[in-house]
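Class prep. Write one:
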Amino acid sequence: MDNLNLPKYIGNKIRYYRTSKNYTQEELAKKLNTKKATISNYETGYRSPQQDMLFQIANVLDISINDLFPATTSEKDISIETIYNKLEPPRQKKVYNFAEEQLEKQQKENVLEFPNKEKIPTVHNSASAANPTELAYGDTVVEEEEFERVPNNADFAVPIIGDSMEPVIRNGQFVFVKEQPDVEDGEIAIVELDGDGVTCKEIYKDYENQTIILRSINDLYEDRIVSPEQIRIIGKVVF
């Protein structure tokens, strides 16, 4: 490619990568601290960017400066070192600072970050059944386990057995519980039933009949109605 066509080639490349980023000419100009007319002149090939501007454009468009130039038989392996050596010292410093910044970003991107886990008491073998037909007592074992996300107001975690609270709470899922003796209507609670184990249900209070309704989210299960004396609310399920 001759030198007369090079500005147009670079301009077309700038336009291509700019539109790929969904930038307008005005937005790109603002990021480069220049005018929209300057970007327009670059893209039409009327003006050719100086070398330091080419590096800035490549930085903003997140490309290599080589992406703006055609690959030729003699120059397809052109290196940044070749360009750098042709620059005057003040511009070499800009290139060095830019390269150092990109290296730092790359190194941060390559670092694997593992989420911090939180420990919370977990109750096992205490029959936290979602399905009333599966309720049973067992010896309570409290251990500390790690979870990636624990609600701030949770006091302990408990595994749920059964599918009656699906799809909100799935069989085998751990739920977090805030210890409290009462809940509002419609809230999900862990409840101990007199002589019938522990369950996880939505709680509704029937004041007229002085009963408590234990409701499943899964429509396959019917409500269970008990008297207030038959249950003890252990806590509210928190998300």
